[in-house]
Amino acid sequence: MSEFKEIDSCIRTSAREHHNINEVFFLCQKAVTDPIAPLFDSKTSSLKPACVSALQRVFYLCDRDQDGFLSDKELLDLQIKCFGKPLSELDLSNIKSSIQKQLPDSVTDKGITQSGFILLNKLFAEKGRHETIWLILRTFHYTDSLSLQSNFLCPKFDVPANSSAELSPAGYRFFVDLFLLHDKDNDGGLSPSELSALFAPTPGLPPQWQDNDFPSCT
Q: Taking a C-beta distance cutoff of 8 angstroms, is the pair 141, 149 a contact?
């Protein structure tokens, strides 16, 4: 496998001796449901650009305080969201140690940097654990082609005739908190860089805003 990079996995099996039969079917199933090709380039031993871009978005969304680090709590929240079970202190320590061995500056008292998070997923791919990457990406609404699901980007929202829709108090509070989080200089407005940072995990500024030169037009 080290010589022929196009081979994803290799296993010795024997139907006559009933050796590794279940393992063969498991690997075949995983090759279809969790393919490594869209994620990892085995020839260069690196994650593919589309995968890196998707993981950067995941990091951004999990970095709730937008300080550029995934704290222990943010990592634990990610673990529970994607895998449905908590991460032990030992596992968390082992994850940080694995990252720190290759990127010493990517683990600090504040948490793990974005480059450290990308490296962690690269290690998953190298160890044949790419189903872990897929589980993370699918939790954050990615398709098998690493694009965001259309029903996530444009959810169906029906408003009956002669009716109107408005934000609930919780929805209003969400947008206020989002504004305050990205108003880094506390000047009561979002500068172009702060606005770009707010829309970083989205497909971009809405076309209507660009057509009308928003927010400069207000």
A: yes
